[in-house]
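Comment thread on ticket #2218

A.B. wrote:
> Attaching the input chain for the structure job we discussed in standup.
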Amino acid sequence: MNNMHAGNQPIHKASDTGVIIRSAQKDDCIRLLELVQELADYEKAPQEVTVSMDHFVESGFGPNPVWWALVAEVQVDGKPFIAGFALYYIRYSTWKGQRMFLEDLIVTEAWRGKGIGGLLFDHLFMEARRKNLPALTWQVLDWNTPAINFYKKLNASFDPEWINCTVEIE
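C.D. wrote:
> Ran it. Output below, let me know if you need it in another format.
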């Protein structure tokens, strides 16, 4: 069943799993950062999460948001629980124009394999279409075989030529 959430954001309930996909709200930020830390732990970089809660909230819900997110909400003991999320922003390519960039997609370990990642991607695709963005791009670690196999099912293309670069500005 597809409906619209406040602000014309898509909401979807998967009848077989009871998963609701909705736009993230400011009150979700504590749980989102818990999931960010879970992802960092999985990626063997637990110390790399240095963003403060205030900065995270301001960046997503302040006067000039730079990121948006979709959350996957399930019921646990009769209460809503965020089992996963997908956080994205708009990036600009001088060759291709605006694109949706998926910064993180995580489903907490206990809820993996239940179709939540696929639902999040379906809603990312809908959101990209709604915003007239022609593509969704993201990165994956070369050793993350489960994620790579999942992305192959989406017919994602992989680019072995580009190397990520970062300079920390102090």
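A.B. wrote:
> Thanks. Noting for the ticket: The beta strands are 2-5, 9-14, 19-23, 68-76, 79-93, 97-107, 136-138.
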